[in-house]
Amino acid sequence: MWSLAGLASLAWAYDTQQEVTDLAGDMAAALANNDAEGFLTHVAKEMPGRAMLRDNLFGLVAAADLNSSVEVIDLKTEGARTVVNFDWSLHVISKDDSSQVEQRHETVTLEVEKQGKRWKVVALKPVSFFGPINTKQH
C-alpha cells in the first residue's frame, strides 16, 4: 500500500524527470533551428564554461545546419540539483560544403536546478561536444 508521502515523492520525481527531459528537448530543438541564443536561455549565466559554450554554439550555428536529438540515460537528484546523463546526437552539415558532414554522438551530462519556476543548466559536460565543425580538407 502506498502512503500519501510516497505517492507525492513519486509524482515529484516523475515531474522532475519530465521537466528536465523537456528542457533538454527544447535545447535540442533550438540547435535544430540554428538558434544558439534559444539554447543559451536554458543555461544559467553563472555556469562555469558558459562563455566557451556560447562561443562554440554561435560558431557552430554560423557554419553548419544541425539536427539534434536527446534521450535520458539516467537522472539523479543531489540536494537542490538534478544530474542527468543524456544520449545526445548531433548531425552537423557544413553550410559551405554540404558534403562535409559530422555525426556526433556522446553522453552529455547536465546539472540543473530550479531557478524561480524554471530549470536552468548550472553545469554541462563536455562543452566541446558543441564545438565548431571540423574543417579538415577532404
Q: What are the main properties of this structure?
A:
alpha+beta, 138 residues, four-stranded antiparallel beta sheet, Nuclear Transport Factor 2, Chain: A, globular
Plain-language structure description:
The structure is a single chain. With 138 residues, the chain is an alpha+beta fold. The chain has one domain (4-129): Nuclear Transport Factor 2, Chain: A. The protein contains three helices and four strands. It has helices at residues 4-32, 36-40, 50-63; strands at residues 64-78, 81-94, 101-115, 118-125. Strands 1-2-3-4 form a four-stranded antiparallel beta sheet. The longest helix has 29 residues, at 4-32. The radius of gyration is 17 Å and the shape is globular. Mean pLDDT is 88; it is low at 2-12.
What is the mean predicted local confidence, pLDDT? 88
Strand content: 35-45%
Query: How many E strands?
Result: 4
Assign the CATH class.
Alpha Beta
Radius of gyration: 17 Å
CATH topology: Nuclear Transport Factor 2, Chain: A
Short description:
With 138 residues, the protein is of the alpha+beta class.
Helix-strand blueprint:
Elements: H1 4-32, H2 36-40, H3 50-63, E1 64-78, E2 81-94, E3 101-115, E4 118-125
Antiparallel strand pairs: 1-2, 2-3, 3-4
